[in-house]
Specification:
By secondary structure, this protein is of the alpha/beta class. It has helices at about 5-15, 35-40, 45-55, 75-85, 120-135, 175-180, and strands spanning about 15-25, 30-35, 65-70, 85-95, 95-100, 110-120, 135-145, 160-165, 170. The chain has 6 helices and 9 strands; from the N terminus they run H-E-E-H-H-E-H-E-E-E-H-E-E-E-H. The chain has a single domain (about 5-180), classed as 3-Layer(aba) Sandwich (Rossmann fold). A 6-stranded mixed beta sheet has the order 5-4-3-6-7-8, with helices on both faces. The chain has a 3-stranded antiparallel beta sheet with strand order 1-2-9.
C-alpha cells in the first residue's frame, strides 16, 4: 500500500493538483483543485489508481462498481477491472442521479461506489441514494482524494488513498475573491 506522500507526488506529476482560484462543483471556491482528467487520460495512471482503490476493498466481495459521471466513470471501470467485476455509472437526471443506458442494480447486489475526489460528498450521496433505492448492498465508498480531511460522513465505510484538508469558501466569504483573483472554472 502506497502512502499519501506517494499519491501527492504522482497527482502533481500527472497535472491533477492545481493552484489558483477555482469554482467547485458545489458552488464553493477554493485555492486548490484536483482535476483528474489528465491522469485518467494516461492508461497506466488510470490503471494504477484503479488498482490502488480496489486494494482497499478486495475483501468486501464486491459484485459491481458504480461511479458518477463524469469523474467516476473511468475510475469505476479500472477498479472493477482490478476486482474482476462489473462496472456501471450513474448520470445526472435533473437534480438527482439515475442509472441510464440499460444499467440497473438488483436487490442485495454487493456494490462499491467510487469517485475521484470528495469535497462535500454531494455527488457520491446522490449515487448512494439510487443504489439504496435499488436495495443494493453498498459495501463502501472508494475515493482517490478526500478533500474534507476525513470529515465527510456518507453512512457507509469510506476509504481514500489520500486525505487532504483543502479549505473551501462560500462566494460571499471567499478571500480569493476579495483579493480580486480571477475565478477559474476548471471543468468548463
Amino acid at each position: 500500500m502506497r502512502d499519501q506522500g506517494y499519491w501527492l507526488e504522482r497527482l502533481t506529476a500527472w497535472g491533477v493538483l492545481r493552484e489558483g482560484h477555482f469554482l467547485l462543483t458545489s458552488g464553493r471556491h477554493s485555492s486548490r483543485f484536483l482535476l483528474f482528467a489528465p491522469a485518467f487520460s494516461l492508461p497506466r495512471a488510470a490503471t494504477e489508481l484503479g488498482q490502488a482503490v480496489a486494494e482497499l476493498f478486495k475483501r468486501q466481495d464486491i459484485e459491481t462498481v458504480v461511479g458518477p459521471a463524469m469523474g467516476g466513470v473511468i475510475l469505476a471501470h479500472e477498479v472493477a477491472r482490478a476486482l474482476g467485476v462489473r462496472s456501471i455509472f450513474a448520470e445526472k437526471d435533473g437534480e438527482r442521479m439515475a442509472f441510464k443506458r440499460g444499467f440497473a442494480l438488483r436487490a442485495g447486489e454487493r456494490v462499491l461506489v467510487v469517485e475521484d475526489a470528495v469535497s462535500t460528498g454531494g455527488s457520491v450521496q446522490k449515487v448512494l441514494d439510487i443504489c439504496k433505492a435499488a436495495q443494493a448492498d453498498v459495501r463502501g465508498v472508494g475515493i482517490i482524494a478526500d478533500r474534507t480531511g476525513g470529515k465527510v460522513d456518507l453512512g457507509v465505510p469510506l476509504k481514500a488513498l489520500m486525505t487532504l484538508e483543502i479549505p473551501s469558501y462560500t462566494p460571499d466569504d471567499c478571500p480569493l475573491c476579495r483579493e480580486g483573483r480571477p475565478l477559474e472554472r476548471p471543468k468548463a
